[in-house]
Structure prediction request, 376 residues.
Amino acid sequence: MSKSPRKPPKRDLVRRTMPGLAASSEFDEVVRLIDSARAHAVATVNTTLIDLYWKIGEYINGQIESAAWGEGVVEQLAAHIARKHPGLRGFTRSNLLRMRQFYATYRGDQIVAPLVRQLPWTHNLLILSKSKRPEEREFYIRTATNQKWSKRHLERQMNTALFERVVLSPAKVSSLVTQLHPDAIDAFKDSYVVEFLNLPPEHSETDLHRGLVEHLKNFLIELGRDFCYVGSHYPVQVGGRDFELDLLFFNRALNCLVAVELKVVEFEPEHLGKLQFYLEALDRDVKKPHEQPAIGVLLCATKNSEVVEYALSRTVSPALVAQYETRLPDRLLLQAKLHEFYALAEAQVGRELDALPQRPARKQAARRTRKSSGRQ
Prediction:
């Protein structure tokens, strides 16, 4: 029996009968080119604008530092610009002084100065106004650039005192995490702020889980740009039994699955056992051949740092323990702790330098210092 001829695909049939038509998917390359060009144009405009503000700030700063101008002249400059370019915004007295501050802040920093051109002016103003230390400014400039934060997200991260939290409480991971993933320490936090869930003080694990799934976009931003959502209540079958891990993500930078187990209580060492079980199941049955071993995150309501350190020191799985914060942290309190932290660190460095054998040049410098202060 002869087979009936196979019908051509509907798209091919349409294109044969109406050759002037093309599938919309074939236009995507042109759309991609347009999007790429627009993104490049925006980036170019931003760089040009930041360069302009830098040069204006440099000029004003030079005039004021040389005593050629007083600060009152800046108001006259703003009025002059307004007369020459009516309707041109952004060149008021306050903005011109911000341009001077922008230049004066970064002019001596050869590392950070090129980076500020990668951020919009609104981001730079926010970082300038809210950051207290050079290290803090550099941290937010680098992180906002890498994570592609909008101004709203940058402001939120600064309100959550991300810099203070990272310095005071770096992520606590097992030794196997750093062995398998040397860059993992930068991909995770010691605490995650989920104030956007609006959870009451007394909430269940179901409440937390449901909230994270419903506000997944915000949670992904809090996790970091390289995290991709895989599933909720992700099914795992071992020995004919069905299990479910709370949340599963994939991290593109680390090229591995990330399992997140939720606990609405204080961390207990036995919590790691279940997480290790899930990691083993993921590596055996889910992980692709080209992927790295999975990492587990135990997200708890509270934790004791010493208990966590003891529990992670002997674990045989790449895991870490973090806590979630349902309210914005007290930024002023964290800033005070950070100031104390830096003061102690500087004192320690001073003691170590004093303990070093003094070279003749250093002795002479110390002698000159004592002499100038009248103590010799």
About this structure: Residues 165-331 form a domain with the Trna Endonuclease; Chain: A, domain 1 fold (CATH 3.40.1350.10).
